[in-house]
Write the structure tokens for this entry.
Amino acid sequence: MDKRLATTAFTCESNHPFKEGVARVELKNGNTGYIDKTGNWVIPAQFTEAGDFSEGVALVNRGGKQEFIEKIGKTVLTRSMISSRAPSSELQQAAAKNSQSVPRPTMSADLPPLSSIIGAYPGTLMDDPVLKPRFEKLLGSSLPDFEARLEISGTTERNGDWVVGMGNMPHAGGSDNAAYAINIQSGVICAVMRVNQEVRVFGANAVTELPTPLTDWLAQ
């Protein structure tokens, strides 16, 4: 176990690497929970099976039922809910493999065709009739500032399950820029904007919860 966790008061059978700021810990009684990097429980050990967090959710087995949970332990989706919504084969495969990349079924039909998303200019794509209301809701009062930071840009590119758009504000050097990522499986949109040295995150609770294409962009 990481030396920073040496004072944590539990005896475990096994532990796992940190993913999105938390790590799984399996106790000797067979239950699994999640701790943060200080060794404190984020979600107490209450699951008979549990997977790592990915994109803010994890697949667990609680009381004989499989659920997708958020980091506060709240159920996002259950297997019965998945079945009733006739999920895509990708979601069924993900659940079977204990994966936590969870498409949100109610949003999967809300995207324009991929041919119109990939290779578009980021600012122009935000005006798409389907996407515009969602960007407005996501960014709120920051929408004009965000769009201004996409004035100098290339076209959107696909990165795994994400389509990424990024740009810079004219005459602002490298510090005033923005990027967003659209998940083509779930329709989830996340965004990040730099204002001078301040980083503002949208669609996630923290920088560490942003999808990998955006955290990689921030690190450049």
